Amino acid sequence: MRERLMELLEERKEEIVQIRRYLHENPELSFKEEKTAQYIIDFYKGKDVEIQTDVGNGHGIIVTIKGGKHGKTIGLRADFDALPIVEETDVPFKSKNEGVMHACGHDGHTAYLLVLADCFIQLKESLAGTIKIIHQHAEEVPPGGAKSIAESGVLDDVDNVFGIHLFPTHPAGYVGYRSGYSLAGRTFFKLAIQGIGGHGSSPHLANDAIVAGAHFVTAVQTVISRRLNPFDMGVITIGSFDGKGTFNVIKDRVELDGDVRYMTVENQALIDNEIHRIVHGIEVEFGVECELTYTADYPPLYNDPEITKNVVASLEAINDSDIKEVFEYPMLSGSEDFAYYLEKIPGCFFYIGCKLKGVDKAFFNHHPKFDIDEDALLVAAKSVAQVVCSYYEKA
């Protein structure tokens, strides 16, 4: 089966590329992917599979491929939403939807998995188990699609789950992995501070919300520098401080937006507690009223060590000129809602290099000029195919 699967993928490489280009031309934002979802549904029409649509809190699609032999059930996931970015690439298949762009590779994720799934369908009688293809909506915008799909119950019978992400840090042919905690969790917070406005000449008759807010900006950084273990990873960013007013008027209210990153659930709890404590302290110290909205978006992504070990062994054993090197990837402070699947189902999320040929330093994901070497699409398909074949052989 493995040999025939690889042959089929090579024969359909151009099809994968064309699907990716179509999706790239027709991007849709998170939770608004109606046409993309329909395109995916139409792809499976007439095929011997079970299709579930509108799964989770949006346009999620689950395609179940039942093998000819009894065995374990695995999940393979690809996301299909785009970003609110004005595309600045020069490709002939540039986005036709002004202000919306596939700047994170989700078009490539969907393209490779559609064709790989179809190849599995063709070879399903040789498949010793069941594969659930997870076409996921809304990865980019919290609460995301993964959490709702994981909570829907449609994956309760899945034994293990796998996914990939295209990254332009390495050329096509390079496959990266990380065991254990691999991608950071993320929390969004909004802090509104209510003081008492007044005239700049009479601060004693007012209560300056800007001073309280400025103190919060400084104090909250001590959570990372003085409360977090120096060997651990954590980031607190104040991305917005809305205190605009008039030069001689003491502001009565300011609003701050912030972003928190952490690599473990333990540090998530620690930072959460410390930020709430500082906010309470500011209320007491400055006599202001604070309203804190604190929302955990995505948890840290944890790759099961044993499963990751098997994935690496499988990829290292492959004898294929398209897959050149398998290497350990560093921890990343970005976030991924695939982490929600891994909270419930042991699995592995790994990385596919896609840096354009002849480029020294590529534009990273979410950049208006982000682009991929389309050879990486076949690498993604072959890598996941190899992992699946090895999984069932080992099972």
Structure description:
By secondary structure, this protein is an alpha/beta fold. It is built from 10 helices and 16 strands. The protein has helices at residues 2-11, 13-25, 34-44, 106-122, 146-152, 209-227, 265-286, 305-317, 339-344, 375-394; strands at 50-55, 60-66, 73-79, 130-136, 160-171, 174-177, 180-183, 185-194, 198-199, 234-242, 249-250, 253-262, 289-298, 301-303, 325-328, 347-355. The strands form 4 sheets. The protein has an 8-stranded mixed beta sheet with strand order 1-2-4-3-5-16-6-15. The chain has a 4-stranded antiparallel beta sheet with strand order 10-12-8-13, covered by helices on one side. Helix 4 links the parallel strand 3 (73-79) and strand 4 (130-136). The model has no long low-confidence stretch (mean pLDDT 97).
The parts where pLDDT drops under 50 for at least 5 residues are: none
Number of helices: 10
Number of strands: 16
Secondary-structure element order, N to C: HHHEEEHEHEEEEEHEEEHEEHEHEH
Outline type:
elongated
Strand order in the sheet with the most strands: 1-2-4-3-5-16-6-15
What is the rounded distance between the termini? 15 Å
* Computed Rg: 24 Å
Sheet having the most strands: 8 strands, mixed
* Amount of beta strand: 25-35%
Structural class based on helices, strands and sheet pairing: alpha/beta
Question: What is this structure, in a nutshell?
Answer:
This protein is of the alpha/beta class and 395 residues long. It has helices spanning 2-11, 13-25, 34-44, 106-122, 146-152, 209-227, 265-286, 305-317, 339-344, 375-394, and strands spanning 50-55, 60-66, 73-79, 130-136, 160-171, 174-177, 180-183, 185-194, 198-199, 234-242, 249-250, 253-262, 289-298, 301-303, 325-328, 347-355. The two termini are 15 Å apart.
